[in-house]
């Protein structure tokens, strides 16, 4: 369905905080209330019409339930710009949508929201903001393989393998995640990184390591407690060594791959994992980062579970 000026206008008005009562009313009917969060002022999110989005190539799927998880991604390419302008945020939104539609063959942007390094927030897939503002429905995106009906994803512009996000991006991430969590009644414990689901380094080691801090910051805004510590997910990469690599190699051998069991994640192990993942349909990019980074042969939770003895 093509976007319309009416939706764009409504999105920005809501985003500008001028329709708080309408959003607040939705809080009386959370789809999956797991907490009693403090209502959050709507953040300034620029709707698809503002950044010149193309219409989706097929109707948007609106699910009649809230998402379970809020998932954090990084975009990887084109790297860590120092252009913090709003125009840059719009340009990256167009670039991601073009890549997802033209290279991946998706109907629209895969992620529901995008945050630029300047801290500007944009809507990704059409109608995402409308759904969050309503608080009971969820626009299905394409950003976490085999989990898209459960997740709402945020692409954060940049590569966070070795360096941290900008303070502006971080502040917007806290604000947007808190708003989504309050609208849907999602516990801060259910904030995740992409690598908690798929074999990818996304959202980068540095940003991933800050997720406990993000959960705490969101919980503080919502006035709710975090119930438990969420352990980091297992991620094994070529070049790694140790007992987990040896265990993976042992399991690969059980699946018929003639790899060494030396605990060294070398080329033969990488090739075997890549072949194993492909045989289970796990070789497709699931978000922008996994499409643009070389993550062939990575072992994440999905691959690890398939390797485990049945
Ligand atoms: Zn990702």
TrEMBL record:
Signal peptide: 1-35
Entry annotated with the keyword Signal: yes
UniProt entry keywords in alphabetical sequence: Signal
Alphabetized SUPFAM superfamilies for the sequence: N-acetylmuramoyl-L-alanine amidase-like, PGBD-like
Domain Peptidoglycan recognition protein family: 43-198
InterPro entries: Amidase/PGRP_sf (IPR036505), Amidase_domain (IPR002502), Peptidoglycan-bd-like (IPR002477), PGBD-like_sf (IPR036365), PGBDSf (IPR036366), PGRP (IPR015510), PGRP_domain_met/bac (IPR006619), TAT_signal (IPR006311)
Gene Ontology process terms (BP): peptidoglycan catabolic process
Domain named N-acetylmuramoyl-L-alanine amidase: residues: 58-204
Coiled-coil annotated residue ranges, if any: none
The keyword tRNA processing appears for this protein: no
GO MF entries: N-acetylmuramoyl-L-alanine amidase activity; zinc ion binding
A Pfam family: PG_binding_1
Family as reported in the entry's similarity comment: Belongs to the N-acetylmuramoyl-L-alanine amidase 2 family.
Protein name as catalogued: N-acetylmuramoyl-L-alanine amidase
